[in-house]
Amino acid sequence: MNAHRISRRRLAGGMAAVVNLHLAVAAAGAAQEFFAMDTGTRDAAHATPAAQVALVSELGFDGFGPAYTTPEALAATLAAADAHRLKVSALYLGIDLDAAGPPGAPVRDAVRQLAGRGTLVWLYLTCNSRKPSDPAGDERAVAVLRETAELAHGAGLRVALYPHAGFWLERVEHAARLAAAAGCANLGVTFNLCHWLMVDGADLDASLAAARPHLFAVTINGADPGATDWTRLIQPLDRGRFDPAELLGRLDALGWSGPVGLQHYGIGGDARANLGRSMAAWRRLRWVDLLPAGGAFGAWEDAAGWREAGEAGVDPADPGRLAVRAGTGVIVSEGAAGYLLTRERFGDVAVHVEFLIPRGSNSGVYFGGSHEVQILDSHGVATPDYPGNECGGIYPEWIGEANVRGHSPAENASRPAGEWQSFDVVYRAPRFDAGGRKTRNARFERVVHNGRLVHRDVEVLGPTRVGLPEAAAGPLRLQGDHGPVAFRELRLRRLVE
Asked: What is the value of pTM for the model shown?
């Protein structure tokens, strides 16, 4: 197929008003890919592609966005991503328009290795013979982009232009103009917040409206509008004066929910800490909050025996009990409450939850109502009573009057009783055919306990002991009758296959 004959998508309608619409979209379960660019994944402890991919996976990102350097480095990155079942969301590479001829070896190698992966070919354009945004270079650019789009089309890939301050292609409006002129359905643009702030920063609505007919990806970060240095224009997502909810809300109003990359160029310091801050901010922005302060039980069925509090800790007079402070944002069972089930039913989900138990206590989080990730006072315990009966374990099934097929965590990541702990879980629900016959078992794609990856790609064959019968969609279920427990920061995001 001739590249310039591939029909373009067209946008109907204009910019709608935004009134916290991003929250409504998140509550409706919109699944939006969030990936970490390699500008923020490198430090002394994460110098290799394998180490960076492992870090990104552990922190709960949906994908990784590396830059192209060599064929060997790309191959190593893809192998690491496959081992962690992590998507390579976008690959950053460039074309020099001063060079004669068709797209060079890096583009051709990248397309060959990425074929069929759904990775965006993230393309920046340089042209030292012309000033940034000089339209005199458009004709040459369009010809090269058509060739590149045709090459990518044959591999089932899309190309997204990457506007970059100081490069010939530095404005998103210019990128949209080139995409429109090329007329290729698999050629689009990226809106880069930090570069937009550096070269423009004036009219966000106008820039997004220009980009929207061709918008394939967005990059975000914390930033201070009006700054002229990268240290202030690129910060972790929870810092800076720019409100990322403003950008996300406008994108929602435009009906756009494509992949979002996290830009951390030049931040420096500890990559895990920086990425963790930004991931926590992303969850607050885009995930459904199941324990909103002051209305913590609104999303749940019968909450008898549970109560809302402002804080929880171990009772100084009795280390086996909880002491709570009045307020909102934390839910507590003293150990005699029932199971707390969400009113809504979910299939594939990502969940972040924080919990606290006193000495000797026991609880759990049940995915789909059926499959439990165990909560237990396991700090310092070398050997569990049986596999899966430790904090972070996938609790066993009960078959033939015995606990069977439990899964112990790869390491004991438990903190001492009385300290807040966390789970980050990616869960894939079982599948059933029209006749109700199970066609695929449930699977824990990833369980991270206190920042440590403790399970990866664990298939579960049946429901946990006292779990609900398996279903394609079920509630999130919190155990409140095995001992005192407190929960906070419980957020959920639906996933797509």
From this structure: 0.80
